[in-house]
Design goal:
41% of the residues lie in helices and 19% in strands. It is α/β, with parallel strands linked by helices. Strands 1, 2, 3, 4, 5, 6, 7, 8, 9, 10, 11 and 12 form a 12-stranded mixed sheet that branches. Helix 2 packs across helix 10. The longest helix has 23 residues. It is globular, with a radius of gyration of 22 Å.
C-alpha cells in the first residue's frame, strides 16, 4: 500500500513538473481559430510609443513563439503616432494591427472608429480598473507619479508624506515638476473633482517649483543635488536608486497612475495576428519581459522589480475615458505653472 502511495505521489509530481512550463507563461491557451487565422495572415504590424530597443525585443520573442508570423514595428512619440494614424486613415490607408500608446489617444481613436473592442482572455489576471469595460483598451504597462527626494539633502523623516504636506512653505523653490505632467492633473481631477484639483495645483505653483521637461534628466539633476524634491515616475527614480544613487521615493496617496493602453485596429490588415499579439504581450511571459525592462507590468501574478513599484499603496487610475477635453487639461496645466 505504501509502495502504491509513493508511486502515485511520484507520478503526480512528474505531471506537475511536466505541465508547469505550459501554464507558467499564459493564463489562457491561445484560441485555435485565432492561431489558424494568424497562420494564413502571416504578419503583424505594431505601432508603439515604447522605446525601440525594448519593442524590438518584444517582437523578436513573439516571432520565436510564433515563427509563422512576421512582425513589423514602427515606434515614435504619442503625438506623432496619433498624427500618423489619422493621416493614413484620411488617405484610406489602414496599415497597422495593434497600437500601444498613451491614454489620451483612446477617445480620438474611438471617435473616428479606428479601433474595435477586443477583450483578451489574459485580462482575467488584470485588475478591472486597468481594463476598459467595453474592451477598447487594456493597460499594457503603467507609470506612477510619486514624490522623490535626494537622500543627502532631505532626511527620510522630513519628507512630505501627503499631498498637503508637500505644500509646506519650506519647500518653496525646492521641488522639480515636469512641464508636461498633464496626466497628474488629469488624474487628480478625476479623483477630487476639477475645483479641488485646480486649487491644489495653484497652491503648488505658488511655491515656485522648478519646471523642466522629462523624467530621466530631472531625476539625474535631483541626484546631482539641483533640487531636494521631485515629482516624477517612480520607475525612473527607482532605476537610479537601484544603482546606488542618493535618491528614494514614496507615493502621495492615492498615487496617480498613468495607463499605457494596447488597442486593436478597426481595419487591421491582420486581425487574427493582432489579437494573438495582444494576448502575448498581456500573457505572463510578455509581462515578465516588462519587469525585466524595469517597467511596471499590470498582471496580478507578475511583480515589478521591486514589487513596491505597483504594490502596497492606494492608486487613482488616470483613465483614458477622462480625456474628454485633453486640450483643455493641457491649457490649464500650462496656465497654472505659467509655462507659456
Amino acid at each position: 500500500m505504501r509502495h502504491r502511495f509513493k508511486l502515485l505521489f511520484t507520478l503526480c509530481s512528474l505531471l506537475v513538473v511536466c505541465y508547469q512550463p505550459a501554464i507558467a507563461w499564459s493564463q489562457s491557451a491561445p484560441d485555435p481559430k485565432i492561431i489558424e487565422g494568424a497562420k494564413k495572415e502571416g504578419e503583424i504590424i505594431w505601432y508603439t510609443t515604447m522605446t525601440l530597443d525594448q519593442s524590438k525585443m518584444v517582437v523578436d520573442r513573439f516571432q520565436t513563439k510564433y515563427p509563422f508570423i512576421k512582425p513589423s514595428l514602427f515606434r515614435t512619440g504619442g503625438g506623432p503616432l496619433l498624427n500618423k494614424i489619422f493621416t493614413e486613415a484620411r488617405g484610406g490607408l489602414h496599415a497597422w494591427d495593434v497600437t500601444v500608446g498613451r491614454g489620451e489617444m483612446v477617445l480620438p481613436l474611438i471617435e473616428r472608429k479606428l479601433i474595435v473592442p477586443y477583450r483578451s482572455p489574459e485580462t482575467k489576471m488584470i485588475d478591472e480598473d486597468l481594463v476598459d469595460n467595453e474592451g477598447y483598451w487594456t493597460a499594457y504597462y503603467v507609470n506612477t507619479y510619486v514624490l522623490g527626494w535626494n537622500t543627502k539633502l532631505v532626511k527620510k523623516e522630513d519628507v512630505p508624506k501627503t499631498y498637503e504636506a508637500l505644500l509646506n512653505p519650506k519647500w518653496k523653490g525646492q521641488i522639480s515638476v515636469d512641464t508636461e505632467a498633464y496626466g497628474m492633473l488629469q488624474g487628480l481631477i478625476g479623483l477630487w473633482g476639477r475645483e479641488k484639483a485646480v486649487a491644489y495645483f495653484k497652491r503648488l505653483a505658488a511655491l515656485d517649483p522648478v519646471p523642466k521637461r522629462g523624467n530621466t534628466e530631472r531625476v539625474q539633476l535631483a541626484v546631482a543635488g539641483e533640487y531636494p524634491l521631485i515629482l516624477a515616475y517612480n520607475q525612473t527614480i527607482q532605476r537610479m536608486a537601484s544603482r546606488g544613487a542618493p535618491i528614494d521615493w514614496l507615493p502621495l496617496e492615492p498615487a496617480v497612475v498613468q495607463v499605457n493602453p494596447v488597442m486593436l485596429a478597426a481595419k487591421a490588415p491582420h486581425p487574427n495576428s493582432g489579437r494573438l499579439f495582444i494576448d502575448f504581450i498581456l500573457s505572463k511571459e510578455g509581462q515578465q519581459m516588462l519587469s525585466g525592462f524595469q517597467r511596471i507590468p499590470v498582471r496580478k501574478d507578475v511583480d515589478p522589480d521591486p514589487p513596491r513599484l505597483f504594490r502596497g499603496y492606494k492608486r487613482a487610475i488616470e483613465s483614458p475615458e477622462g480625456y474628454k477635453d485633453f486640450d483643455g487639461t493641457v491649457k490649464l496645466y500650462l496656465d497654472i505653472f505659467k509655462l507659456r
